[in-house]
Amino acid sequence: MRLVLFSGAIALFVALLGTPVAISLFRRHGYGQEIRDEGPTSHQTKRGTPTMGGTVIIVAALLGYIMSHLVTMTQPTVSGGLALGLMTALGIVGFLDDVIKIWKQRSLGLRSGAKSLGQGVVAIAFAIAALRFPNAHSLTPASAYLSLDRDIYWLYLGPIAFVVIALIMVAGASNAVNLTDGLDGLATGASVMVFASYVVIGNWQFRNSCTTSITHSCYWVRDPLDLAVVAAAMAGACFGFLWWNAPPARIFMGDTGSLALGGAMAAIAILTRTELLLLLLGGLFVIITLSVIIQVGFFKLTHRRVFRMAPLQHHFELVGWNEVTIVVRFWIVTGLCVAGGVGLFYGRWLS
Predict the structure, then answer these.
(1) How far apart are the C-alpha atoms of 277 and 148, rounded to whole Å?
(2) How many domains is the chain built from?
(3) What domain range includes position 242?
(4) Residue 44: how many CB atoms within 10 A of its CB?
(5) 50: which strand partners?
(6) Residue 317 falls within a domain, yes or no?
(7) SS3 sequence, 163-222?
(8) Residue 135 domain flag
(9) Three-class SS of the chain
């Protein structure tokens, strides 16, 4: 448990103290956010706010994880390395996107094809590696079964289908967080709660691991405690960053942060074997993504709109809700989704 606490605390303080340094540095070099013209007019006042703050989240999480292992003199695991590797690689894809936005002074960075290609290559490499590296109990970081709170043994996917599912999850989660990151602090605060839930889940799986005691309700997960350490580092980093990203934001995470956070969520879900559970834990991200899919699909069919604007948070802005009101209420929705997800996880352990 000390490992988890150190990881979260170190990441929090690095993000809390490092973000104002990044704000000063990015502002000095003119790394400001471009705002799309078709968005809510109130967002035009945010033009020029420093972006690429996701670099702070990534660095803080990596330092939190590494330093906690050094302090406690414990060895990192393959699962932890894979999760952080996926987060960092997607952060690099997002960083390139942010750099192009700044360089070309526009709200669009990488072309959609190039961005999807980057996400796809990273996701496939992660999925292939996750099926390798068995430990002494022949457990690999991920399994080729679909999972809810543990592997569903009648839903064997096979290696190829698993890679496809992992690709969909990684691309879907990273894009979902990216769509949610439209209001100050919204994606950051929601991410804190999702990662906090995985601290609880990873720790619970560790304490009820089949590698130490085989019972009817134990978990076959390779490195559950270290995944809780990763989740704690991510939660701490987001919490520290949120101090400066809360409304009115002094810095935005940019695609650097949103892609990295979504990738970390997908990685932890896959490696803790709770892939379907992520749909409930990250319910807000799912709802916001569905709002875009519904809007686009309905418009193509009927040339009419369901919402005044998508993603969903902008619909409520145009309806007249205050930005802070939307953020806080969407955080409440996230809290309910996380409570439901953790409750389902614990309830299935009891049963």
Answers:
(1) 5
(2) 1
(3) 2-277
(4) 11
(5) 32
(6) no
(7) HHHHHHHHHHHHHHHHHHCCCCCHHHHHHHHHHHHHHHHHHHHHHCECCCCCCCCCECCC
(8) yes
(9) CHHHHHHHHHHHHHHHHHHHHHHHHHHHCCCECCCCCCCCHHHHHHCCCECCCHHHHHHHHHHHHHHHHHHHCCCCCHHHHHHHHHHHHHHHHHHHHHHHHHHHCCCCCCCHHHHHHHHHHHHHHHHHHHCCCCCCCCCCCCCCEEECCCEEEEEECHHHHHHHHHHHHHHHHHHHHHHHCCCCCHHHHHHHHHHHHHHHHHHHHHHCECCCCCCCCCECCCCHHHHHHHHHHHHHHHHHHHHHHCCCCCCCCHHHHHHHHHHHHHHHHHHCCCCCHHHHHCHHHHHHHHHHHHHHHHHHHHCCCCCCCCCHHHHHHHHCCCHHHHHHHHHHHHHHHHHHHHHHHHHHHHC
**Cα(164)–Cα(124) distance, rounded to whole angstroms?**
8
- pLDDT score, position 109: 66
**In this structure, what token pair is assigned to residue 213?**
């005691």
- Between CA 241 and CA 304 the distance in angstroms is 39
pLDDT in tens, 70-110: 999 999 999 999 999 999 999 999 999 888 888 776 666 67
By mean pLDDT, which of 60-74, 98-112, 229-243, 313-327 is the weakest?
Answer: 98-112
Q: 179 in a domain, yes or no?
A: yes
pLDDT tens for each residue of 191-203: 999 999 999 999 9
pLDDT at 255: 93
Extract the tokens encoding 222.
């390779």
Quick one: average pLDDT of 250-276?
96
pLDDT (0 to 100) of residue 96: 92
Angle at 237 between CA 27 and CA 195, to 5 degrees: 135
Q: Quick check: is 321 in a domain?
A: no
Query: What pLDDT is attached to residue 42?
Result: 53
* Angstrom distances, CA of residue 119 to CA of 146, 232, 244, 278: 21, 24, 28, 19
